[in-house]
Amino acid sequence: MEFGNRTKTQAPPPQNVSAKPLRAKLLQLTNVSKTFQSVTQAVEALAPSNLEIEEGEFVVFFGPSGCGKSTLLDIIAGFETPTTGEVLFEGSPVTMPGSDRLMMFQEHTLFPWLNVVRNVMYGLKHKREFRFRLRKQRETARSWLKMIGLEEFETSLVHELSGGMKQRVALARALAPDPKVLLVDEPFPALDALVRTKLYADLQDILVRTGKTIISVTHDPREAACLADRVLVFTPRPGRVQKEIRVNLPRPRDINDQEVGEYASRIMEELENPPDEK
Q: What's the structural domain count of the chain?
């Protein structure tokens, strides 16, 4: 056999455990901009922007309020149509919302008349493989509640939960239909520091265990440094990406770690010193 005759020079090189696997391009944005037109004026929210996001990345849009980062998230989700440019998801144009790109909103948007497990099940009933299969819906919902540590609260009603628990249920509901991209639009500011820390840990754990692509929006530099593989720093309106910062820290990360703080300082420095002022 060829294997038995292999010489030393033909031996495969040792595996580089630190090398990252090649990732597929999942999202491609070309010349994407957004201008909102009212009766009296036009407001340019987002300047023409180009961006690529790879499968399995955690990308954070960071910038001041009103810089267009949430608008760009809505365009990726299919909630908004760009004024110019094109968004491609796996090579196909994004023209509407889809179950492959699901959003976790600033408010938990849970249904108060449903208990926890039925809230998580809600997004499953429209998927073909779950339609009319309540047992499969329930099993899948329970598996996600277990992942975020809320399995014992599956029969609780929404009003019986704390703010942090509601957001974790909302996270499970967004993930249950197995989207390829999870979009996270600043769901944490109203929560206390301990609850936010738990949610940061949940998101990192989900990233590592499932390989999900996650795109998040924040104006908190420590949150960006704690969560992201890449932080895209936006200019004030009309927003555009002025700097990309790669966060080369192992996971899980604690938001209070010194290294996270150092990256946060670098992110803020970029925000406070845009290119035309350097």
A: 2
Q: Is the peptide bond preceding residue 275 cis, with omega within 30 degrees of 0?
A: no
The residue ranges of DSSP E strands in the chain, in sequence order, are: 25-37, 42-54, 58-62, 84-89, 92-93, 101-104, 181-185, 213-218, 230-234, 241-246
Looking at this protein, which amino acid is placed at residue 105?
F
Name the band, by pLDDT with cuts 50, 70 and 90, for residue 21: low
> Is 8's pLDDT higher than 70?
no
Which is nearest to 247 in space by CA: 235, 269, 264? Answer: 264
| Domain closes at, from 127, 154, 178 | 178
What are the φ/ψ torsions at residue 237 (nearest 5 degrees)? -55, 135
User: Which of the listed residues 148, 178, 208 is the one where a domain comes to its end?
Assistant: 178
CATH code (residue 269): 3.40.50.300
Give the position of tokens 């925000």.
Answer: 271
The pTM of the full predicted model, rounded to 2 decimals, is: 0.84
| Structural domain range at position 140 | 110-178
Residues 110, 141: contact at Cβ < 8 Å?
no
Residue 118 domain-assigned (yes or no): yes
Is the residue at 191 inside a domain? yes
CA distance 34 to 55: 25
How many Å apart are CA 223 and CA 195, to the nearest integer?
13
pLDDT per position as a tens digit, 180-209: 999 998 877 667 777 788 888 888 888 888
